[in-house]
Design a protein that fits this description.
The structure holds two protein chains of two kinds. Chain A is of the alpha+beta class. Chain A has four domains: 5-149, Aldehyde oxidase/xanthine dehydrogenase, molybdopterin binding domain (Aldehyde Oxidoreductase, domain 4), CATH 3.30.365.10; 174-244 and 295-385, Aldehyde Oxidoreductase, domain 4 (2-Layer Sandwich), CATH 3.30.365; 249-293 and 389-474, no CATH class; 490-701, Aldehyde Oxidoreductase, domain 4. In chain A, the strands form seven sheets. Chain A has a seven-stranded mixed β-sheet with strand order 9-10-7-18-15-16-17, sandwiched between helices. In chain A, strands 13-12-21-20-19-14 form a six-stranded mixed β-sheet, with helices on one face. A four-stranded mixed β-sheet of chain A has the order 22-23-24-27. Chain B has two domains: 2-76, Ubiquitin-like (UB roll) (Roll); 85-151, [2Fe-2S]-binding domain (DNA polymerase, domain 1), CATH 1.10.150. In chain B, a hairpin with a 2-residue loop joins strand 3 and strand 4 (55-58). The longest helix of chain B has 14 residues, at 102-115. Chain B is globular. Classes of the chains: A alpha+beta, B alpha+beta. Chains A and B meet through helix 6 and helix 15 of A and helix 1, helix 2, helix 3, helix 4 and helix 5 of B.
Chain lengths: 702, 152
């Protein structure tokens, strides 16, 4: 058997699993972002080794220890790390049984493992893992030979290992770490990442606050958090901020079309083949999404300490090893001089301010050797400076013949989804690296060419459309900074595809589920859609006076290779205001072998609710100088009173590989909502957010 | 600087501090309580919510000098060993994802259950409208509060 990718890169078993007395230490490069990955990984090891989960300790995201696993993103952790840990544990199990067989002079078949002890089917003698290893670790390399165990998912709820602490005042988050002599840092920036400070007058040091300035980078350090906070505000107000007029913003999203970078996407991969013209088409429509924020509930933060020519950083970044290389590069240090240790913060949902805050903390810390700095961004910093999910404009054109889509064309115009920092030469993706005296430029965005990698993620419909033309257009504008957010291009692309499928079904007078099934050959895709339609048919909406009721379906397989998900949304539209209220959702998913059913449900439902918030309410607003969405009033998200009930059905396939699910619902959600609004009102809204204003405008155009 | 006497989680404490300091800083930095969390500083997200007497207050905008009554945080509800029925219900239902918003929500929920021991789903949703959750764990959170009401 070929080894799972993470195990190929980190083949030594002791990199993954260490045996310490009666406990197991499981190491992974993947980090906890609130998705429950620590619980899922611990449960895999507990299952494979028949070891109590309460005696497993997870070490994750330390650049100094454990496997190098890059980044925790793209719904990949269960597929890559889950499979790697499962195989590593299977090999550890095999090795322990071998050792016990030699030690006890019995056949391997006479032995089994229970509760972390190797036992004999006949006989009372049992041996613990550490007794068998006699203080050694399993330093051998993985072979891929022993097969992992097979079992269907049990519906027994697996308790999240991190939640009890978070519910009882435990020191769970980065901001809670207790480090002696910790001082408080804040950064001082203008209205946008492009504003440059002039007339900076450092604060009087008698205030107990130190001002750090490195050309355009300005920060303050105080012993007391409130002093640091006040000093930041004082300096920010006192400085004159200047913006290069070429960086002033223009309205709307139409300018995204002004680019000459276009790549033809074939089978999900962009290439350099000539782009054919679009023939006359029966159906043409344009779908758009605005810029969205990650909108973490906590602003970004980091702790940095510069001591003995070594920089230690605690960060909630998704890729500790990438961040280490990026910071080493920006500060002209070797990678051995930098250690990054992952510590949790509130959920990030992609590349938010975490990495920039870590660099900010580092730049403050190297100015005060020996003093650890806890740097916190304020809410306003997070909303102004975090990279947004890019706006997208999608032009769809299709032709139908005999009730089947014969031709599908999509031109997708957007900005980069790849703004993450990593160890690059002569450039940097970290804000402070552009500001410091030894400034590095921002890299120029390049169109990604990976399969389903960015703008074109899920742009290639899973449906059987014989003739297809999919073009990915990248706009290199750097005024609005963009990067990865859950789902990347899948959010906009699935919105366009699944909205168009409903529009086409309606033109053909065919049931929208039947129309989809007619174009779907994949059995697993058909199964989730059929099950969803069946479950939805049993839900009885409750009509209300003054409201129109509707429901809408959507389907996607994430990246055309991960989790299959079908969704039906029930909602009501106020007849006067045209405001939409969600009622209920039915979700059916096939994620292959299920590791943690409750964790999977939590991820699917969370993905749906988050995407419903993006889709109904969210758009970053701008004036000429930068964002005006600087707090939760100016960037509203879905509230508790607006949350629909959700019913989730999982199709378990225990013999098939586990598939990533964390982003499976982000794409189908806006389409299901728009389809339900159309069903309720007859108005087709093609512009996210699907607000009452957007519905009214769309109604006037129809 | 002034010495202020407070009652926090049923214990008397005194802190020498500028009375204009946010209550949140005092709880976290002076009294080493990790549960109240900073989210927005503008009473828009609820992550910092604590009880002062029987009132729900935003610890980020309340100054310590304004505090006239006993303060209760999540640490005052229950512990890992002897959790409050709400904490137990949240653990039983895995009610959360990243967990950052949960402290403020637990405090609001405890005030809700004191005032209304048998709330409906819509009572719970209305009480939680002062709180933001970004992970989409809302239904689990609502269900955990309803379970705690049933269990206690």
């Amino acid at each position: 058997m070929t080894l799972p990718s993470s195990l190929q890169h980190n083949p030594r078993l002791s990199t993954w699993i260490l045996i310490e007395n009666d406990r197991l230490i499981v190491q992974t490069g993947k980090v906890e972002l609130g998705q429950g990955i620590k619980t899922a990984i611990a449960s895999i090891v507990a299952f494979e080794l028949d070891f109590p989960i309460s005696r497993i300790d997870l070490v994750s995201g330390r650049t100094s220890e454990g496997p190098e696993e890059g980044i925790t993103a793209g719904s990949m952790s269960i597929e890559t790390t889950g499979a790697s840990v499962r195989q590593a544990a299977a090999e550890v199990r095999c090795h322990l049984i071998n050792l016990a067989s030699q030690h006890l002079q019995v056949e391997r078949d006479a032995l089994y493992i229970e509760q972390g002890l190797v036992k004999q089917h006949r006989g009372n003698e049992s041996l613990s893992f550490s007794e068998l290893l006699n203080g050694k670790q399993i330093d051998m390399e993985a072979t891929g030979e022993p097969a992992p165990k097979i079992a269907a998912a049990s519906e027994t709820l697996l308790a999240r290992i991190d939640l009890p602490g978070k519910l009882t005042g435990g020191r769970s988050f980065l901001q809670d770490l207790q480090i002696p002599n910790l001082q408080h840092g804040r950064i001082v920036r203008g209205p946008s990442i492009h504003h440059r400070p002039t007339h900076v007058r450092p604060l009087d040091t008698s205030l107990g606050v130190v001002t750090i300035q490195d050309r355009d980078f300005i920060g303050v350090i105080g012993r007391n958090e409130n002093q640091a906070r006040s000093a930041r505000q004082h300096l920010q107000d006192a400085i004159t901020w200047q913006l290069d007029p070429s960086l002033e913003l223009t309205d709307g999203t139409d300018w995204l079309r002004e680019t000459d970078i276009g790549l033809l996407v074939v089978d999900g991969t962009p290439g350099d083949e000539p782009i054919p013209d679009v023939p006359p088409c029966h159906f043409r429509a344009t779908y758009t999404k605005p810029w969205h924020m990650h909108g973490s509930i906590s602003p970004s933060a980091a702790i940095a300490l510069w001591e003995d020519n070594h920089l230690t950083i605690y960060s909630h970044a998704q890729g500790p090893s990438l961040l280490r290389d990026a910071i080493a590069g920006a500060l002209s240090l070797t990678r051995d001089q930098v250690t990054v240790i992952h510590a949790e913060n509130a959920g990030c949902y992609g590349h938010n301010g975490a990495d920039d805050a870590a660099m900010d903390a580092a730049l403050l810390a190297i100015n005060v050797p020996g003093t650890p700095i806890l740097l916190k961004w304020e809410r306003e910093d997070e909303q102004r400076f975090e990279p947004y999910s890019p706006a997208t404009v999608i032009d769809v054109a299709t032709n139908i013949d005999h009730g089947r889509v014969q031709y599908w064309s999509a031109d997708i115009y957007s900005q980069t989804h790849s703004g993450r920092p990593f160890g690059m030469q002569g450039a940097s993706n970290l804000i402070a690296a552009w500001e410091q005296a030894k400034a590095l430029p921002r890299p120029i965005p390049q169109p990604g060419r990976g399969n389903h990698s960015g703008i074109h993620r899920n742009a290639d419909p899973l449906y059987r459309f014989p003739d297809r033309r999919i073009v990915k257009h990248l706009h290199r504008d750097q005024r609005i900074r963009t990067s990865s957010t859950r789902g990347l291009g899948a959010y906009a692309n699935v919105f366009a595809i699944e909205s168009a499928m409903d529009e086409l079904a309606s033109m053909e007078n065919v049931d929208p589920v039947a129309f989809r099934l007619k174009h779907l050959a994949d059995k697993r895709a058909r199964a989730v859609l059929n099950r969803c339609a069946d479950l939805a048919s049993r839900h009885l909406p409750k009509p209300r006076d003054g409201y129109k009721t509707g429901y809408g379906f959507a389907f996607a397989q994430y990246k055309n290779r991960q989790t299959y998900a079908a969704l039906c949304v029930f909602l009501q539209v106020n007849e006067k205001t045209l405001a939409t209220e969600l009622d209920h959702a039915v979700i059916v998913a096939d994620a292959g072998r299920v590791v943690d059913p409750d964790g999977l449900r939590n991820q699917l439902e969370g993905g749906f609710i988050q995407s419903a918030s993006w889709s109904l309410k969210e758009a970053v607003t701008f004036d000429r100088y930068g964002t005006t969405s600087t707090n939760w009033d100016s960037y509203p998200i879905l509230k508790f009173s607006e949350i629909p009930t959700v019913c989730i059905d999982l199709i378990d396939n225990p013999k098939l590989p586990s598939l990533g699910a964390g982003e499976a619902l982000h794409g189908p959600t806006p389409a299901a909502i728009a389809n339900a609004i159309a069903h309720a009102t007859g108005i087709r809204v093609r512009q996210i957010p699907l607000t009452s204003d957007a519905t009214r405008r769309a109604g006037l155009q129809d | 600087m002034k010495t202020l006497n407070l009652i926090v989680n049923r214990r008397e404490v005194s802190v020498a501090i500028d009375p204009k300091t946010p209550l949140l800083d005092v709880l976290r930095n002076e009294l080493d309580l990790a549960s109240p969390r900073f989210g927005c500083g503008e009473e828009q997200c609820g992550a910092c919510r604590v009880k002062v007497g029987s009132h729900l207050m935003y610890a980020c905008t309340t100054t310590v000098g304004e505090v006239q009554d006993a303060v209760t945080t999540v640490e005052g509800l229950g512990t890992l060993e002897t959790p409050h029925p709400l904490q137990q219900a949240f653990m039983d239902l895995n009610a959360g994802q990243c967990g950052y918003c949960l402290s403020g929500i637990l405090v609001t929920a405890s005030a809700l259950l004191n005032a209304n021991p048998a709330p409906s789903r819509s009572d719970v949703m209305a009480a939680l409208d002062a709180h933001l959750c970004r992970c989409g764990a809302h239904n689990r959170i609502i269900n955990a509060i309803l379970k705690a009401a049933e269990d206690s």
